[in-house]
């Protein structure tokens, strides 16, 4: 159990401890981590963002009348995003998940469902943030299979999923797993014909697709200029390159935006009015997002988008030269999914082999016939290492082929299906993980191929239960140095 020191520690000692703890973290710069982080490769941009963050750190976004700087900065940030994504008005949020939650709330409140709980219809490739929003907001989520070859949403299947209780349909631009843009115009037309709202999840692509179009690339229509699209989410801490905690949700109709707000006067204290899920919040992310956008500028974003897409295309060409590997779908954005066609070349082992060589490739589990694969998010800095990444992938693939499939203990997956997790406390679950070589919170970075292979053999509801227990065991460990391994499949684009 951690305890506070009786006397406060000196700043130098505290910062040294943070530095020590971070030594086990994945690097946030350089491009060898192909998920979670977005790097321009421009040190001056990151420096000005950090300074702006500190300038606004203690400004509280709870009451914009007390801190008018919040209003001024948010108007500029949201206005810049709306100007590139078809207009409308919007809200600055802490991330894609919060943007999506506000869009779902607005749809629920603006279009009361007939005859029961409201529903939203989402493609199978839609981000789990929609399921999270449904869980929190009392909205049922209807998952619709996607095209098994292109991995794009199927407008006819989406139309068939609509019921009198449907308040919103969803399309992705692009979907995070494969980097493909759904047929937004057709899905929005389906929604409009049914009198249903349509949200476009452009969390990962909203601030790269417009710049790719500016550069002459074919980008399918996806934003609020598309008839029938009523709201859109766009993360600035992804391809906007702002520090984490920066997203925007846009609404085509300002009355719909107001449905995202929350107000309460049901107590004797100050009247609460919130545009976001959070109440008190630092304006640091807002200041940093504004500074990042202004420092990069339109020309900078065009260059960064072009570099990221060129790096993605070089990776795709490199994959074609590696026996046994293939790219899933045809990416419209700099996100690439790589699967194996060779039973002796396991993608989870490949990820471990890459990790041992200083690279992080994000595992994605199989789902609804889509095979397990490795996800790559290419950013502005990736072009500088565009030749190194395919070479690292090829080297890790060859090592994985030599190592063979992960040694999953016989019967482990079947045993987990019958395991009563409620009978295990966190320590007991940690012991179970230890039996397959994983120590939550332990030093170093253990191989995760066995864990991911076992998870991949289980249905989604069991995966979820096990991952909840993994997270609980991780945080229940000792308060000293801890290193969580992000090599276990998790994370995603909307955060």
Give a quick summary of the entry:
The protein is α/β, with parallel strands linked by helices and 495 residues long.
Describe the model.
This protein is of the alpha/beta class and 495 residues long. The protein is built from 16 helices and 13 strands. The chain has helices at 11-21, 43-56, 68-84, 96-110, 129-137, 155-160, 184-194, 209-214, 254-260, 284-320, 347-356, 388-403, 412-418, 426-434, 449-456, 460-475, and strands spanning 89-93, 119-123, 140-144, 166-172, 197-201, 231-235, 247-251, 262-264, 272-274, 325-327, 335-340, 362-364, 373-377. The strands form three sheets. The chain has a seven-stranded mixed beta sheet, sandwiched between helices. The chain has a four-stranded antiparallel beta sheet with strand order 10-11-13-12, with helices on one face. A two-stranded antiparallel sheet has the order 8-9. A hairpin with an 8-residue loop joins strand 12 (362-364) and strand 13 (373-377). The longest helix is centred in the middle third of the chain and has 37 residues, at 284-320. Residues 480-484 have low confidence and may be disordered.
């Amino acid at each position: 159990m951690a305890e506070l020191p009786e006397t406060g520690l000196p700043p130098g000692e505290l910062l040294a401890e943070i530095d020590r703890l971070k030594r086990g973290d994945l690097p946030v710069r350089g491009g060898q981590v192909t998920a979670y982080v977005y790097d321009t490769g421009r040190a001056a941009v990151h420096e000005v963002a950090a300074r702006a963050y500190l300038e606004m750190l203690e400004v509280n976004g709870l009451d914009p009348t007390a801190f008018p700087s919040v209003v001024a900065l948010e108007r500029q940030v949201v206005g810049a995003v709306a100007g590139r994504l078809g207009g409308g008005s919007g809200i600055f949020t802490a991330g894609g998940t919060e943007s999506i939650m506000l869009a779902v709330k607005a749809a629920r409140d603006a279009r009361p469902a007939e005859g029961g709980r409201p529903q939203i219809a989402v493609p199978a490739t839609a981000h789990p943030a929609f399921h999270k929003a449904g869980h929190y907001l009392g909205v049922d989520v209807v998952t619709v299979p996607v095209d098994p070859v292109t991995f794009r949403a199927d407008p006819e299947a989406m139309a068939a999923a609509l019921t009198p209780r449907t308040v919103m349909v969803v399309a992705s631009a692009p979907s995070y797993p494969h980097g493909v843009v759904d047929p937004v115009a057709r899905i929005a037309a389906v929604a409009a014909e049914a009198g249903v709202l349509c949200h476009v999840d452009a969390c990962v692509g909203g601030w790269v697709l417009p710049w790719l179009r500016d550069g002459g690339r074919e980008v399918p229509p996806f934003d609020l200029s598309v008839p029938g699209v009523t709201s859109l989410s766009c993360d600035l801490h992804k391809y906007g390159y702002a520090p984490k905690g920066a997203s925007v949700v846009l609404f085509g109709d300002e009355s719909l935006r107001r449905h995202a707000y929350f107000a309460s006067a049901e107590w004797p204290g100050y009247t609460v009015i919130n545009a976001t899920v959070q109440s008190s919040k630092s304006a640091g992310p807002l200041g940093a997002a504004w500074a990042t956008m202004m420092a990069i500028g339109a020309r900078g974003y065009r260059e960064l988008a072009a570099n990221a897409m060129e790096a993605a295309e070089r990776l795709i060409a490199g994959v074609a030269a590696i026996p046994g590997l293939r790219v899933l779908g045809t990416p419209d954005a700099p996100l690439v999914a790589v699967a194996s066609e060779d039973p002796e070349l396991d993608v989870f082992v490949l990820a471990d082999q890459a990790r041992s060589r200083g690279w992080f490739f994000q595992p994605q589990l199989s789902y609804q016939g889509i095979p397990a694969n490795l996800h790559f998010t290419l950013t502005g800095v990736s072009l500088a290492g565009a030749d190194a990444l395919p070479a690292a992938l090829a080297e890790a693939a060859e090592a994985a082929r030599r190592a063979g499939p992960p040694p999953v203990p016989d019967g482990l997956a079947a045993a987990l299906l019958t395991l009563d997790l409620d009978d295990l406390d966190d320590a007991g679950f940690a012991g179970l993980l230890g039996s397959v070589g994983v120590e939550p919170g332990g030093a170093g970075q253990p191989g995760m191929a066995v864990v991911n292979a076992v998870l991949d053999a289980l249905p989604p509801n069991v995966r979820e239960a096990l991952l909840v227990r993994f997270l609980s065991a991780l945080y229940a460990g000792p308060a000293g140095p801890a290193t969580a391994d992000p090599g276990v499949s998790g994370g995603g684009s909307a955060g």
